[in-house]
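Re: the request from the purification team.
They wanted to know what the chain is likely to look like in 3D before they choose a buffer screen. I agreed to run a prediction and write the result into the notebook, where they can find it.
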Amino acid sequence: MRFDGKRVLVTGAGKGIGNTTARMLAGRGATVVAMSRSAGDLAALHADIGCETIPVDLADAEATRAAARAVQPIDLLVNNAGTTTLQSFLDTTVESFDELIAVNVRAAIIVAQECAKSMIARGQGGAIVNVSSLASSTGFRDHASYCASKGALDAVTRVMATELGPHGIRVNAVNPTVVLTPMAVKAWSDPAKSGAMLSRIPLGRFAEPEDVAEVICFFLSDASAMVHGASLLVDGGFSAN
């Protein structure tokens, strides 16, 4: 899968899945535009792969839209940015819920809107991948806001696919299990919790960022030309139980 001549925007590129995806795409010929809140993370990524960088707090809707407009034209989009806060359902606060919806769903909508408008104006089609989660369809303790945000992202993916498909823009979601990123380590550091989760994964391990990045690249590539509106589990068989 090569991406020569393609300009790809990756949100949340400073760490984890987004960082790995940006590096993988650059290695396969893409011109990468990396978006993240941390200027330091972006500077390190730029030093390694020579990508364009856009520092922005995706919880800020106006700043997000301005940044998304500024980087056009974009041929391919990876809506990867995400955050989490661990709270039991009874203790879930309005503030944390709003923050997760803002970053995990609203920002993805805003960035995709600006990219899709540019793609339609140029008449060249494109592809969008929304990085969702197994949590969109499975209820995990202390993840009420996160599960809600990822369920919403899957729903938005289906609507995007319905409306953007006629313009030649393919839209899919990737739904991984726990991926060994800094955010996942924070959420799954308790051995009692991680052990119970691992026991339900037939492949016997959590995912690595590369496992997810490869699926993202597949969805962005012409190899998946007839895959549209899908939410693909990358869960090591968790859902087969």
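For the purification team: The mean pLDDT is 96.
Please add any questions underneath this entry.
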